From TrEMBL, chain B:
Keywords: Membrane, Transmembrane, Transmembrane helix. InterPro entries: NUOK/Mnh_C1-like. It comes from Candidatus Fermentithermobacillus carboniphilus. GO terms for cellular component: membrane. It comes from the Bacteria. The lineage of its organism: Bacteria, Bacillati, Bacillota, Candidatus Fermentithermobacillia, Candidatus Fermentithermobacillales. It is found in: Membrane. This is NADH-quinone oxidoreductase subunit K. The keyword Transcription regulation does not apply. Pfam families: Oxidored_q2. It is a multi-pass membrane protein.
Amino acid sequence: MGGFMPYVWVILLPLIGAVVVAITGIFREEVTGHLAAGFGIINAGLALSMIPFMKTGATARFPWLPGISDFTVVADGLGSFIAITAAVLGSLILIYSLGYMEHEHGKTRYYALVLLFIGAMSGLVLSGSLLTLYFFWETVGICSFSLIGFHYEDPKALKGAIKAFITTRLGDVGLITGILVIYFATTPHTFEISAIMENSSTISPAALSLAAFAMLLGAMGKSAQVPLHIWLPGAMEAPTSVSALIHAATMVNAGVYLVARMYPLFQNVPGWTAAVTWVGVVTLLLAALMAVTAKDIKRMLAFSTVSQLGYMFFAVGTGGILASQFHLVSHAIFKALLFLAAGALIHEAGTRDMDVLSGVSSKMPLTSAMYLIGVMGLSGIPLFSGFFSKDMIFSSALQRGAYVPLVLAVLGAILTFTYSWRSYFKVFRGKPSEVLSHAHEVGMAMRIPMVLLGIGTVTSWLTVGIQSEALEVLGEGIHAVSPLYLLEETFSSPAFLLSITALGFGTLFVIRYDQVFGWLESRAWKALSLVQREFYFEDLYGRILSLAHAVGKGFAALIEGAIAGFSVLLGRTVAFLTRCTDAMDSRLIEGSGRKVGSTVIGSAKLVKRAQTGDLNGNLVRLLIGISVILAIVLVETGGCL
Amino acid sequence: MANPLFWVGGSAIAIVMGLGIYALVSSRNLLKMLIGLNILSKAATLALAIGAYNTNDTGVGQSLMIAVMMVEVVVTAVVLSLIVNVYRHYGSLDTGDLKRLSG
C-alpha cells in the first residue's frame, strides 16, 4: 500500500468535485459546467492510469466501521473496466452537457449530481466490501432519481422519477437481504467479498441459495430486467445526457456487475445460472419487441438498453463473464453515442416523436453520421465492437450447450437489427420534416464527445487484450485474448454463422418492414397490440397497486370502525364509572364530611363552657393544679425534693 | 437542715411568694397583676440565693440569680407592651372587661 493510488482517487475526486461545484454554484452558476468538466477530465485521466494496477488487483484498505467492515477498494479487472468506462464516458458527457444544458436552469444541481454519480459508480464497482457496495449502490440510485426528476416542474418527470425509485427499491430489498444473509451465514461474519469467497464452504446451501436469488432480484431491479424493467423507459424524462450516462452506459450495468462479481460464489446454487440465463433471454426478447413498436426515439433506445442488458445477463448465466463484460463496455460506448446523437437531435428539433421526425441527415450531417455508427455497433455489423461482443456471447452459449436460449437470443438480435436500422431510416433519411426548419448542426462541445465515442464504437474491441488479461486472474476459465486472436476466433467459430443469420433476417425485416407490419396488423393484431401495449406490464402493476390501495383502504376502514367501536365502548364505560363515583361521592365522601362537621361542632359546644374568660379565676385554677402536682410529687418522693 | 437560716429564709420565701400570689389572684388591674408577678419572681430569686448559701455553692447561685433577673426584666418589658396594647384596644385594664375568649 501507499504511493500513488488512482483507484482511490477515482472515487474521491468526483465526490470532492461534486461538493466544490455545489459550493461554487451558490456564487457563480455559469462556471459550474466548466469546473465539472475539468474535474471529469482529470478523473478520466486518473481512471486510465488504473490500467497497470488491474492485473494485480491492487487493494487499498481504510479502517471504517470497527469490527464490521473496513473501507476496502479493490481494483481488479471486473470493477476497474466499468470504473474506467464510467470515468471516461462521464467526462465526455460533462463536456457534451456544456452545450446541451447551456440554456437550462439548475445547472449547479445537474453538474454536482453527475459528478456525485461518477464517483459513486466508481465506488460501487471498486468496493471490496458488500457493505460499501450497497452504500454506493444506493448513492447512484439517488443520483438517478434526482436526475430523472431534474425538470421537477414537469409531472411526467416526477412520475418517472418516483417509478424508478420505487421499482429499483424493490430490487434493493433483495440486495440488502442477500448481503445480510451472506454476512450472517459466513463464518467468521464478514462483508469482505474476497473473505466470503475464501470461506464460501462455511455457508449453508439454503442460505447460499436464498442470498443468490435475493441478489439476483437486486441486480434485476438495477439493470431493468423483466419484470422490473418498467422504470427505465420512464427514466427517459431525464436530460438526454443523463440518460446516456446513467440509464444506458453505467448505472444500469451495476446489476450485471453484481451477478458477474458473485458468479463464482453462486454458480453452483441449483437453478441460479438457469435463472440468470432465462431472465436475460426473456428480457432481451420482450424488450427488443417493445423497441420495435416504440414511437418515441428515447423510449426505443431505453428498450434497446434493457434488451442489451438482457444479453449481458444471458452471457453471465452461460458462464461467459468475459463476454458479458466485453459486451458491457462496447454497449456502454455505442449506446452513449446513440443517446448523445439522439440528444443533439432532440435539442435541435424539440421533439422525440419518430413519426414526426424525418430527414435529419441533410440538416445535421455529423449527428446523423454518428447515429449511423451507433446503429452499426448496436446491430452488430462486422468489425464494429457490438459485433464482436455479441458474437462472443453466442459462442459462450454454444460452448455451454444452452441451445434454446441461444435461438431466442438470435431472434432478439434480428429484432435489434430491425429496430435500430428502422429508426435510422425513419428519422435520418428522407425529406426533412417541418420541425427541423430551424435545426442546424450542434456546437463543438457536443460534437467532440460524439466523435470520440464514434471512434470508440469502431475501436473499443481492440481493448479486449487488456480486458481479458485483467479478467484472467479471476479464473472462471477466462483466457487472455489478443485482438488478432479474437478476429480469427470470431470469424471461424460457428457463432459467426448465427451473427450472419441475424444480420440477414434483420436486413430482410428492415426492407420489408411495412409489408411485415401490415401482415401482422391484418392477421395477428392481437399479438401486435400486446407488444404495442408493452405486454401490459404497466397495467398489471397499476392493477396490483390499485388492488393494494383498495386493500389498504378496506383495512383502514376496518381499523377506523374498530377504533370507533372501541371509543363508544370506552365512552360508555367512563360514563358508568362516573355515575358510580358520583354516588360514592354524595354518599360516602359528602356524608362523612357532614358527619365530621356536626361532631366537631357538638363537641365544641360541649367544651366551650370551660372557657370562662376570667383571668383571675384561671390563675387560681392554675395554682390549684400546680399545688396538686407538687403535693403528689412530694408524697411520692417522701418529702425530699 | 439544721441551719437556722434555712428556716428564716424559707419563711421569708413563703411570705414573699404568698404576697405575689395574692396580688396576682386578687387584683383585677393588669398593672397590679404584673407587680404581683414581679414579687413572685423575687421570691424565686430569694429562693435561689438562700439555696446557694445553704449548699455553699455561691457561684452557681449568683449566675442563676442574674439569669432569673434578666428573664424577669424581659418578661416585664414584653408584658408591659402587651398591656399598653390592651389599653389602646379596649380602653381599660380591668380583667373583667377582657372576656372575649369566654366560651
